Amino acid sequence: MGFQTLDLWIVAVYLLVSIGIGLLAGRGLNTTSGYFSGDRTLPWWAVCISIVATETSALTFLSIPGLAFAGDFSFLQVAFGYILGRIIIAAWFLPKYFSGNLITAYQWIGTRFGVQAQKSTAVVFMSTRLFADGVRLYATAIPIALLFGLYTGTQFSQNELYIGAIVILGVVTIFYTVFGGIKAVIWSDFLQWVIYVAGGGIALYLLASQVSSDSLDFSKTTILHWTTKTGSFWSWDESYLAWNAIIGGMVLSMASHGTDQIIVQRILCTKSERDGKIALVLSGLIVFVQFALFLLIGWLLSSFFAGRNLAPDQAFSTFIIEFMPSGFSGLILAAVIAAAMSSLSSSVNSLASSSMIDFTRNNWKINELVLSRLVSVFWGVLLTVVAIALVASGDLVKKSVVEVGLKIASVTYGPILGIFILGNLKFEMPWPKILTALALSLAGMILLVFFSSMAWTLFTLTGTLFFLILILLFRRFS
After folding, report:
1. Cβ partners under 8 Å of residue 427, min gap 6
2. What pLDDT sits at residue 404?
3. How far apart are CA 253 and CA 78, in angstroms?
4. Distance between CA atoms of residues 177 and 26, nearest Å
5. Angle between helices 158-208 and 315-323 (to 10 degrees)
6. Distance CA 159, CA 139 (A)
7. What pLDDT, on the 0 to 100 scale, is given for residue 464?
């Protein structure tokens, strides 16, 4: 039991394979279109899995089991909302994206409200992605550092292990992303998804073989909650009340999969609008099943660790460290790394694509593909630096690292979705007024998200409504 040399070799082989995928994908790559969109030749099933892998960070891998460990299966209500949101985006947004032959989502905003609108929304995306994914990368380093700490003993300090894990993840991911472009990202995502689902399946099998059915608490398998803990039908501070979870999950998915370049870029790599719709909607169904898998793991862990005082987010990590046989521990660690690298590579390429398409378009006398790769390096290094900087925050970040990443994204998702809805409604208004509404709604969301007890599932919905109400007021009184 525990982390052994065999596990270290498994992780090393996985990292080398990731680099190899980047090298293979980069062969013959000679255009910016190929670098950022794969020349729209990628199969829908690979894009579908890439979408799933991109939205499944290492935090999901380690934290979703904690929800069932401490509670029940109610998170599946949010996942059901994700499916509904994808269906709306597929029907409403995607036809416009494909008809415009776009590379970024913000190009479409530019066609509706002008180039300043395109740049403004791109800046909001970049800021959100930089800090939210910096938190993700930092959080991923925690379990990885813990495992390597057990292997190396007290040779390194905790912060040194954190920084070492962040640097290794950053360097390998930057290499294959920069060299292979979006094709390397998508095919690496495919491999990474297979690895972490296999890791989850193995963990589920090992747990099921060690837990007696008599010890299981079947009340923890509840999915739908139609009333609050006090018996009322609505409350603004209960995240997993059915209405809040399903509707909130739907609107969150509309924002994350309809306006965020990290997902839209993948959809626009498919061969046709039809393929893009299939990839998007099917990804919602796969995510639902995937969440069910990791909630099952958490449910079994609650029985396996019965009587032991463990924080919910530590339960799966503790099982991996203390009870997984040698070899399997390495596979699970590779799965955690895979989830982290999938999120990081997606961020690097989407940030670079937005920088090149929405801003520079090569204002310098440099080969455009070379410049795209340099911009990718810049964003990869910057994300790594943000994660390293968070190490200095210590306990401040570790206390609520999942919540921190969620709150950063929630501040911007609602108002940005509001702008896209405005564009789809053919609503005409000068961009300065829209920008004012955007600024006010972002400020309002910062106050609401960080200084209120509102359920996190309602953040995006509230931000969207806040923005649209401001627009209506501006139109009424201007």
Report:
1. 471
2. 64
3. 9
4. 9
5. 80
6. 13
7. 96
Q: Using one digit for the tens of pLDDT, what is the confidence trace for 25-67?
A: 777 788 888 899 988 999 999 999 999 988 876 667 777 888 8
Element (DSSP H or E) covering residue 194: helix 158-208
Contact 272, 266 (CB under 8 A): no
Calculate mean pLDDT across residues 100-122.
90
Encode burial over 290-312: b for 16+ CB neighbours within 10 A, e otherwise.
bbbebbbbbbbbbbbbeeeebeb
Query: pLDDT-based confidence at 403, cuts 50/70/90?
Result: low
Residue 166 burial (10 A CB sphere; 0-12, 13-18, 19+): buried
Q: How many residues are given for the chain?
A: 478
Q: What are phi and psi of 443, to 5 degrees?
A: -65, -45
pLDDT at 395: 53
Which of the following CATH numbers is that of domain 5-395: 3.40.50.2000, 3.30.1370.10, 1.10.645.10, 1.20.1730.10? 1.20.1730.10
Tokens 């690496």 locate to 188
Q: What is the CA radius of gyration of the chain?
A: 22
Q: How far apart are CA 399 and CA 286, in angstroms?
A: 30
**Angle, vertex CA 45, rays to CA 43 and CA 47, nearest 5:** 70
DSSP one-letter string for 281-340: HHHHHHHHHHHHHHHHHHHHHHHHTTTS---GGGHHHHHHHHHSPTTHHHHHHHHHHHHH
Residue 356, pLDDT above cutoff 70? yes
Mean of per-residue pLDDT scores for the chain = 86
